[in-house]
Every structure is written in C-alpha cells, then in structure tokens.
C-alpha cells in the first residue's frame, strides 16, 4: 500500500533520514521504532507532506505522493495523529468529529466552495454516535475538547482521524500511548485492532515497546536515520543491532 | 428549532434598536453618531472574520476600506461612472486587492503576517499621497455629489437626500454584515475557518486546503471593508490618504478587542462604546485621550475577552448558558 | 557620481544605526513578552523630551543628559511592564491594545506639558565634516558612534553575561528557563526596561538631529517593526544588520529613484524578502515547529 524507497532528509548538515526503504502492506499494522532522534517523526512528516524529501520517493497505492501538499496527501487517504496532541480545543468533542466529516469541497471551484456556506453543521450522524459510544466518550460529546483529560483528548484525536472525509485507508499514529494511562492504552490498542479488522492499515511510531509487541505485525527499526532492522516484533527484539541501538555499547 | 429561533433574538433586537434609534434620539448629531457607529460595526465585524475567527493577524483593513472609498469616488469623478455602479466596482476592487495581497502574504504567520500586511497598507497610503495627478495627494478629494436614488422601478425607491436616509442605509449594511459574519461563522465553512485558527497544521493534514480558506475569509472580510468605504465616502464628502492609514486599522482592531474578539456581538458593543465614549466624556480633549488610554489598558487587563465576554459572564450568573451578548463564533 | 554614492551610503548607515537600535529593543520585547509594543516609539519621545529639559532648562552637558534620559526611560519602562504588560504576556492582541493605550496616554501627557510645536536640542557639535566629498554633520557622526557603541555593548551583554543569557533563554522558552532556575519574572521586567533605556538614548540623539514633537515616536517604531521582521524574529544580529540594510536601501532609493517615496523602499524590500524567505533574513527557518 505504502512503499518508501531511499527516503532521505537533511536538516542543514545533518542527515535525519539516510536512504530508508520499507513497505507497509494493506491491512497490516507496522511499527516504526528507534531511539530518540532516529528520524521516526521526520518520516511521518515526510509521508504526510509536512516536509519535503531531499531524495528518494514515496508511493501510495502506486502513485507518487512525495511533493504533494499535506491536504492532497490526506485526500488520497492518509490520516495522521501527532506526538504533541493536536485537536481543535475550542470545539466540542462532537464538533471536532463533525468538522472532520465535512466533505472537502474547497479545491475544486468557487461554486462548490460557496455551497458549504449555507450548511449549518448540526446534522445528526449515526456514525459519529457509534464511534463516540465505542470509546465511551458519548456523554462527553458536548464538552469542549480542550477541557477533557489528556488521555481522552488523545482518543478524540484518534477518532478525528477516523472521521476524516474521504475516509483514510492508511493511518499514521505518532506515539499514541505517550502520556496515557494503562486503561486508556488498552482501549486504544483494541480500537486499532478493531479498525484493522475493518480493513484499515496502520503505521505506528511508539516508544512503549509493549504496545508495539502487542499491536504490530511488522516492525521497522531506525537508528540515526538508517533502517537497521525489519521483521516480526519477536524477531526484531532479538536482533543484536537493535539491542545495541537501544541499550548502547 | 425553537432553540434556533431564540438564537436569532439578538439580531432582531439589533434591528429594532437601530430602527427606533432616530426616534428615541432625534437630531443631526445623533444621526451622525449612528452613521459612524454603523460604519465601525461593518469594519470591525469584517475584521473579526479575518482576525478573530480565522486568526489571521493581518493589519491592512483600513487599506481595503480605502480601496473601496477611493476606487468608487475616482470612478465617479474621473470617469463619470454612475455612482451605484462605481460603488459596486469599489467593493470588487477591494476584493481583487485582497486576493492579490492575501495570495502573497497569507503563508506568513503571526508577527510576520502583521508587519508584511502593514507594509502593503503603508505602500497604498504612499501611493495615494504621491500619485497626485490621480488622487490629488495628501490634500484629498472633495466629493460634491449626492448619491442618486436607487431602487427597482415600481417596487421601491431609496433616496439619499437626507442624513436620516443615510443613517438607514449604513445601518442596514451594518446589520447585513453582522448577519453575514454570524451565518458564516456557524456554517461548515466557518467551522473550518475556526479550525485553522486553532491548529492550522492539523487542519492541513486533515485534508483542508487551508490557504484557500484563509484567502476566502480575507477576501470576504476585505470586501466588506470596501463596502464601508464606498458607502461612507459620499456622506463624509471628503476623502484623504490618512483616513485609510495604518492608524485607522489599529483603531478598528482596538474596537474589536474592546468589544470582544471572536464574538459576533463584540464589534457592536465595541463600536457603540468607543465611538460614543469620547463624545460622552465632557472634558478637555487632552484629558479625554488620556482617559481613553487608561480605559483601553484597564479593559484589556480586567476583561481580556472584551465587553462581550464580560457581559456573558455576568449574564451566565443570572441564567446559566446564556450567550446573548457575546455568542462566540 | 562616486561622491554621491558615498554620501548615500554614509547617511544610510547613520539612519540605519538608529533603526537597528530601535529594532533591537523591539526584538527583545517581542522575544520576551510576545507583544508588538507600539509604545516603543513613545519611549523614544520621552527620552528626547527628558534630554531637552535637562539641556535647555538646567544647562546640563548633552552627553550627561543623554545618559540621564537613558536611565529615566529605563525606570519608566520597568514601571510600565510591572503595571500593564505583565498581565498580557504572549496575548499579542491584548498586549497590542495595551500598548496603544500607552501611546495615547504618553503622547497626550507630552502634548499637555510641551504642546505640539516642534522643539530641538542645539547640537553640541554643530559643524559639518567633509571627507572625500562626503559631507556629514559631526553630530550625526556622534549619534552614529554612540548608537553603534551601545548596540555592540548590548549584543555582548546578551552573549556574555549571566543576565543576558537568562534573557535569551527566557525568550526561547520561558517554562524551561524557569525550571532551570532563571527568575523569569525579573528577567522580563529587566529586559523591558533595557529595551526602553535603549530607546530613551536613541530619542535623545534623534532630538539633536531632527525635531521633538509628541508624535515623533510613530515613524521610528514602524520602521523598527519592519526591520525586526526583515531580520527575522528572535535574531538579535539579524535585527542589527537589517537596520543598516533598510537605512541604506532608503537612502539610495530616496536619493536615486524618488525622494517622496523614500519610506516606501523599506516596505518593498520587506515584502520581496518575505515572499522568498517567510522567516526573514536571519530568522530560524521553522521546520513545522509545532509538529
């Protein structure tokens, strides 16, 4: 589904990513791990179009997506969350999801743009109800998203991605478990698995190795901008290069 | 549905207040005050759309107000275009100017955007000051015509012969602007604009082409400023470059902040207060300005959300959940 | 031709030094308070009047008077920060309106005391120098020398001293600075007061070259903002270089293209540069800083 070939990114003189290649197959949950500063978040930024590649290419369903602006990448079916939590804090939980559900009219022409003007965004949506019910946020739906607990906000950010329109096929999660209590982590893991069964594909950057082991089919390990290992979690864990990268020499 | 119609009550209230005002406070002086208040309601509401709702710190609003005024007046005086056509052209010109300036500056953020739009605004003023053969420079243009009546034959006819009729015209536009901004803020489109203010990167990765949305809000807001200029100029009967310089933008911003940024009604409260307050303080102009400065500082420290936020807080003690005075967009 | 060129360059550099000093103060305030302080120009104005009163009414030596205005305006800045801006830190719109309130108050107090008629301080060095066909007033050279000296002093202060490092740390991240044991509250007040003091001195110097009016602060402050953005926010060196750049660009533009459009050249330069470098000449390129 997603194929990265020789992806390279420089910041000034520093090579943040040095010719990294790997694949994410449809319906898989792939983990992207590595020590701090190994280039994981940089990789997500490159895929989602927030920064530009200095070399290599990224294919999504056979089409090149590197060089596309972030909104175009999103419209092709790639959604993402952020390491530092991102949602729309002044909107209520429900309004966050409704916003994401909006058809992306802008970008074609003025007429379609203006067509979204008269619509007052309050229509009921069974789909949004179901999602909120599923993660147990239904009774919080009218509260300001910014007023929820950190873990709940992370769930909202996750639901936001699922609600995107057009629906994302590939979802990039940047440290979904960071700063979240164990109960909430379990909710999150269940949700990811649930949506994988419904055909979604995930690429997960995560520090918590337990989450990675529980969740992922394949793990890609980065260190200093290079791919040092790839394979099933249990195997990667035994890899000497990985041990060294994580625990030093 | 019942809920929705209650929400429209403040708009009806404003309509009633505006229509009754000339009867309650008759006389040319109060009509003039009403016209100026209406003018600033248009200017601040439209700036609120750009700065408050969409969160774009652009300080060139008075320039678009000036494009509307100079554009329409020059078309009338230099080319002999009938006023109402020139009026429409003035608004359109403001929109075109906003498209060009917006397209070249809206990728900037925060103070960068502020100062870059400020530079455009000052360039516009310098242009007016120095293109003397067209604009008569700093001396400005005296407007000697009265806008002709307009209307649809057989249906209605509106004459602008008197101050009173001008008041009704300006007030109608003020009402339309407030209504438009309110409607826009609650539409799907308005939600996206608010989302851009709150987190542009997130909006972008969620698939919204944020630059287009920002440009749309900027252009729409600026066209209302152009409308204010094109409508107000003949009443003022005189236009000059320094009416549209950056100080004017700053004044508009000030009204918006004192009234309450991001609130639909803030611009209304702010315009009423800041236009009438200096008149009401019956002291020497020097002391008046010093008092004015003190009021600005105190309001910003004590009520960071402006009057609208303050009134909402007071009201919600009496009736929880009430947002009649503020109505955050 | 070459002489003319030299004249433009020298005069541009002299004006540029003033711009740089004003922009330096604005950069410090913006970095540390997150506020575009429109009242910065009024600090200039207060400094000018203060020096005027000392020299013309008490016969104080100009250099002493300039130093005294620096001190006085520094104290004024401290009072202003403690009573107003500290309630609106990083609320850039609220802070901006507060600064506008200060502009109204300070301008009108000055107007009440000294009226609107322009005043001036007789320059202590009234002669004009001529070297290689370049003509320049000695007073301008003095002003240039003092301003440049002060700019160098400030840059070294920010780089080398403990307090200076504290200021830079607080500007980068106030929370982290606070956890590192920097007393950010005091740092903010001191920085604001230093920026004001710098403006006070520039005001006193300007007063010997141009005239003093209650409204004299507006233009330098506007120029200062342009210079600050052109240099790139947060870059002290950038502000200084951009100050000289704008001074020189205006001098050449005004002299060779159009004198009435003189003030416009700085704006044109700003717009053109921001189109290609949205983070200014020497600012940090934001690699999606919020991601």
Describe the biggest sheet of chain B? 2 strands, antiparallel
Radius of gyration of chain B: 20 Å
User: Which geometry of chain A do the CA atoms define?
Assistant: globular
- The mean pLDDT of chain B is 88
Strand order of the largest sheet of chain B: 1-4
Helix and strand element order of chain A: EEEHEEHEHHHHEHEHEEHH
Relevant CATH superfamily of chain A: P-loop containing nucleotide triphosphate hydrolases
**Ends distance of chain B:** 19 Å
Largest interface: B-C, 43 and 49 residues
What's the pLDDT, averaged over the residues of chain A?
A: 87
Share in helix of chain B? over 70%
Helices of chain A, by number, come to: 10
Helix count of chain B?
A: 15
Residue windows where pLDDT falls under 50 for at least 5 positions of chain B:
none
Count of separate structural domains of chain B: 1
Radius of gyration of chain A: 19 Å
What can be said about this structure in brief?
Chain A is α/β, with parallel strands linked by helices.
Please describe what this structure looks like.
- The complex is a heterotrimer of chains A (249), B (329) and C (291).
- Chain A is of the alpha/beta class.
- Helices cover 36% and strands 24% of the residues of chain A.
- Chain A has a single domain (2-247), classed as P-loop containing nucleotide triphosphate hydrolases (Rossmann fold, 3-Layer(aba) Sandwich).
- Chain A has helices spanning 40-47, 70-76, 93-101, 110-115, 126-135, 150-162, 182-197, 209-215, 233-238, 240-247, and strands at residues 2-11, 14-24, 29-33, 55-60, 63-64, 78-80, 170-174, 201-205, 218-223, 226-231.
- In chain A, strands 6-7-8-3-9-10 form a 6-stranded mixed beta sheet, with helices on both faces.
- In chain A, helix 3 packs parallel to helix 6 (150-162).
- Chain A starts with a strand and ends with a helix.
- The model of chain B has no long low-confidence stretch (mean pLDDT 88).
- In chain B, 74% of the residues lie in helices and 3% in strands.
- Chain B has 15 helices and 4 strands.
- In chain B, helix 3 packs across helix 12, helix 4 (61-79) packs across helix 11 (210-236) and helix 5 packs antiparallel against helix 11 (210-236).
- By secondary structure, chain B is mainly α.
- Chain B has helices at residues 2-7, 9-24, 28-53, 61-79, 83-105, 110-130, 132-135, 163-186, 188-198, 200-205, 210-236, 246-259, 266-280, 285-302, 306-318, and strands spanning 141-142, 150-152, 156-158, 238-239.
- In chain B, the strands form 2 sheets. A two-stranded antiparallel sheet of chain B has the order 1-4.
- Chain B is globular and about 50 Å long.
- In chain B, a hairpin with a 3-residue loop joins strand 2 and strand 3.
- With 291 residues, chain C is mainly α.
- Chain C has one domain.
- Chain C has helices at residues 2-33, 40-58, 62-83, 92-114, 138-160, 162-172, 174-179, 184-209, 218-231, 236-257, 262-276, and strands spanning 128-131, 134-137.
- In chain C, a hairpin with a 2-residue loop joins strand 1 (128-131) and strand 2 (134-137).
- The radius of gyration of chain C is 19 Å and the shape is globular.
- Chains B and C meet through helix 6, helix 12 and helix 14 of B and helix 4, helix 9 and helix 11 of C.
